[in-house]
C-alpha cells in the first residue's frame, strides 16, 4: 500500500486546483442528459451530510480516489463518480450517499480512471442515480469478533483472508473474522456480508483445509464463533419450548434444535466435555454443559467434526466418560441459557 504522506497539503492543493475548473454539468447516466440546478461539487464529501448532490464540470477526473464502488469519503467526488461510471468526460450531476467505513478499499481501473488501495477508513461514499433506492451497507469487519456481542454483521473486503484462525465450523473467538468466514464458506473470494454468532467455548478446535484456507488446531478456549452461511444474512432464530423432543443427534446435521423434558434431564450416558460424541444422550449432555437444569428446556446443538480423543469430566451433577476416536461431535449454544 502506498503511504499517504502530507495528506492535508496534497489534498489542499488538489482542492484549490479543482476549484478553478468547477462548473455546472449535466447528469448523464445512460447518455441522455437531464438539466438540473445543483451547486458545484466540493472536492471531497461534505462532513456530516447523509446525502449530497452536486454538479461535476467537464474534464475533472484527475483527483485522488481510494476504493471501488465504495470509496473513502475523502476521495475526489467527481473522479470517483467517473470511476464508478456515473458520469462521462462531459461531467454531469451526481448523487453521493454516506456509508459506513470499511476495512479495506480495493484498487481497480474502470472507465479510464485508476483508483488506489487503502486499508481501514472511518466513512465511505457510494453513488446512486436520482430517485434510486439507497442500500444501507454494513460496516467493514473488525479483525476480531466484538467481545460483548451476541452476533455481529459486517462486510469482508475482497481477498482479505490472510489472518490466523483456529477450528473448523466453530472457531475460537480470537480468530480473524473474514479468514474464518472464508474457511466456513460464508463468503467467497470477492468478499461480502457475513453474520457471525457467539458460541460457547470448546475443549478442542480441530484443524482442516476448506475453501482454500487452512485453519490451525487448538485446545480449550473460553469462547467461540460460528457463521450463518446464508446469503440473506438473517439472524438465527431461537429454539422454543414448542420444538420437538430431544432424541439422538441427527446424522450429518450441522444444527439441531429440540426440547428436554424435566424427566429427561437425567437419562443416558455421555462421552466428552462439550464437544460430545454424537451418540451421547442430548439432555444429559445439556445438563452436563450447564445449558439446562433439572426442569429441562429448549437447547440448540451444532454438529462438529469428530475428535481423536474425548475427555470425561464431572460438571453440574453429571459425570461424562472418556472416549477415543469418534467420527462426529456436537456442542451446545451456551447463549440460550
Task: Summarize the structure in words.
This protein is an alpha+beta fold and 337 residues long. It has three domains: 7-127, LCCL-like domain (Ferric Hydroxamate Uptake Protein, Chain A, domain 1); 151-227, LCCL-like domain (Ferric Hydroxamate Uptake Protein, Chain A, domain 1); 255-336, LCCL-like domain (Ferric Hydroxamate Uptake Protein, Chain A, domain 1). The protein contains four helices and 20 strands. Strands 1-4-7-3-2 form a five-stranded antiparallel β-sheet, with helices on one face. The longest helix is centred in the N-terminal third of the chain and has 13 residues, at 7-19. It is elongated, with a radius of gyration of 26 Å.
The domain tally reads 3
The overall pLDDT, averaged over residues, is 82
CATH architecture of the largest domain: Beta Complex
Shape estimate: elongated
Radius of gyration: 26 Å
Strand tally: 20
The helicity comes to 10-25%
CATH topology of the largest domain: Ferric Hydroxamate Uptake Protein, Chain A, domain 1
Helices and strands, with pairings:
Layout: H1 7-19, E1 51-56, E2 67-68, E3 70-72, H2 77-83, E4 92-100, E5 109-110, E6 113-114, E7 123-127, E8 151-156, E9 167-168, E10 170-172, H3 177-184, E11 192-202, E12 209-210, E13 213-214, E14 221-227, E15 255-260, E16 276-277, H4 282-289, E17 297-305, E18 314-315, E19 318-319, E20 328-332
Antiparallel strand pairs: 1-4, 2-3, 3-7, 4-7, 5-6, 8-11, 9-10, 10-14, 11-14, 12-13, 15-17, 16-20, 17-20, 18-19
Key terms:
single chain, 337 residues, alpha+beta, Ferric Hydroxamate Uptake Protein, Chain A, domain 1, five-stranded antiparallel β-sheet, 4 helices, elongated, disordered N terminus
Amino acid at each position: 500500500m502506498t503511504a499517504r504522506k502530507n495528506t492535508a497539503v496534497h489534498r489542499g492543493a488538489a482542492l484549490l486546483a479543482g476549484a478553478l475548473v468547477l462548473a455546472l454539468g449535466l447528469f448523464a447516466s445512460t447518455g441522455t442528459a437531464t438539466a438540473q440546478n445543483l451547486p458545484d461539487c466540493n472536492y471531497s464529501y461534505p462532513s456530516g451530510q447523509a446525502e449530497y448532490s452536486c454538479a461535476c464540470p467537464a474534464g475533472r477526473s484527475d483527483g485522488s480516489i481510494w476504493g471501488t464502488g465504495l470509496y473513502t469519503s475523502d476521495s475526489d467526488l467527481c473522479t470517483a463518480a467517473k470511476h464508478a461510471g456515473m458520469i462521462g468526460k462531459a461531467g454531469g450531476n451526481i448523487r453521493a450517499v454516506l456509508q459506513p467505513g470499511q476495512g479495506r478499499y480495493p484498487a481497480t481501473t474502470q472507465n479510464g480512471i485508476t483508483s488506489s488501495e487503502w486499508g481501514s477508513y472511518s466513512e465511505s461514499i457510494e453513488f446512486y442515480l436520482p430517485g434510486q433506492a439507497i442500500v444501507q451497507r454494513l460496516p467493514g469487519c473488525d479483525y476480531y469478533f466484538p467481545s460483548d456481542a451476541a452476533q455481529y454483521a459486517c462486510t469482508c473486503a475482497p481477498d482479505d483472508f490472510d489472518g490466523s484462525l483456529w477450528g473448523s465450523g466453530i472457531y475460537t473467538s480470537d480468530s480473524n473474522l473474514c479468514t474464518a468466514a472464508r474457511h466456513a464458506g460464508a463468503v467467497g473470494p470477492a468478499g461480502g456480508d457475513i453474520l457471525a454468532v457467539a458460541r460457547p467455548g470448546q475443549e478442542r478446535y480441530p484443524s482442516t483445509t476448506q475453501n482454500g484456507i487452512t485453519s490451525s488446531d487448538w485446545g480449550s478456549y473460553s469462547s467461540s464463533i460460528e457463521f450463518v452461511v446464508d446469503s440473506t444474512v438473517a439472524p438465527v432464530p431461537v429454539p422454543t419450548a414448542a420444538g420437538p423432543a430431544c432424541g439422538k443427534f441427527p446424522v450429518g446435521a450441522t444444527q439441531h434444535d429440540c426440547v428436554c423434558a424435566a424427566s429427561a434431564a437425567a437419562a443416558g450416558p455421555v462421552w466428552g466435555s462439550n464437544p460430545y460424541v454424537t451418540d451421547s444422550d442430548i439432555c444429559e449432555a445439556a445438563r452436563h454443559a450447564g445449558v439446562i437444569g433439572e426442569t429441562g428446556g429448549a437447547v440448540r446443538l451444532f454438529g462438529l467434526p469428530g475428535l481423536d480423543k474425548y475427555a470425561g469430566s464431572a460438571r453440574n451433577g453429571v459425570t461424562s466418560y472418556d472416549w477415543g476416536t469418534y467420527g462426529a461431535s456436537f456442542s451446545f449454544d451456551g447463549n440460550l441459557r
